[in-house]
Amino acid sequence: MTPRLIAAIRLDGGRLCLDFVNTIHDRYAVAVEDYLATPERYAEWARRVGAVEADETLALPRSEAGRARLMADMRALRDALYRLLAARLDGFPLPADALRVANKWLLAARKDQVLASDGRLVLRAAAGDASLPLKRIALDLVDTLAGADAGRFKLRRCANRSSCGWMFADTSKNGRRRWCAMETCGTASKMATLRRRSSTRSAVAAQDGRPR
Ligand SMILES: [Zn+2]
User: Measured in angstroms, how far is the CA atom of residue 154 from the centroid of ligand 1?
Assistant: First the structure.
């Protein structure tokens, strides 16, 4: 299968860290499609979502070992974030091992934070730092948890429980957004409900028509 274009990837999370955990196409699939399967795709995605800004550069490692390490770091942080956000969503305490991973990247991010001349705290990584997006994502997790606590949005998991598993920040007025996106999971789920209803109806009709 040709990998889908990074430009075609849906960004329905509404937050950087949520779009990051949503780079697994379908968490319920047996064979998982990972949007960030190579360092090049990771870099392109990071650029697209703004985890690397226009004046920043990413120098991807050239050695196989370096590339493998970057991918392992990326996957470990993504997995940790997914578990932390899932625990928060489900009302469980945040798992300690996932916290350790997130804290490692937070510490790395804080070491790169400086107070800029405009009085803002900014992340200023070394030129080419390939883990810059991971640092920015770890910082965004903190903002996201704080934003959810402050009631600025609700953290939600897509209501499609058969083939999605994405998470999103619900900023809708009534706070009742159910799907990562109506045009993907919303429509698919409505079609499935209709199919179920019509097959129940035809089963009932078949039963009624059966000779007694
Ligand atoms: Zn969905």
Answer: 16
How would residue 107 be classed by pLDDT, with cut points 50, 70 and 90? very high
Q: For residue 173, give the amino acid letter.
A: K
Q: How many angstroms is it from 80 CA to the middle of ligand 1?
A: 20
**Model pTM score:** 0.90
Ligand 1 centre to CA of 9 (Å) is 13
How many whole angstroms from 207 Cα to the centroid of ligand 1?
36
Å from CA of 193 to ligand 1 middle: 15
State the pLDDT confidence band at 56, using cuts at 50, 70 and 90: very high
Interval between CA 59 and ligand 1 midpoint (Å): 33
Reply yes or no on whether the pLDDT at 159 is more than 90: yes
What does the buried/exposed string (b/e) look like for 144-175 if buried means 16 or more CB atoms within 10 Å of the residue's CB? bbebbeeeebbbbbbebeebbbbbbbeeeeee
Span from the CA of 29 to the centroid of ligand 1 (angstroms): 13
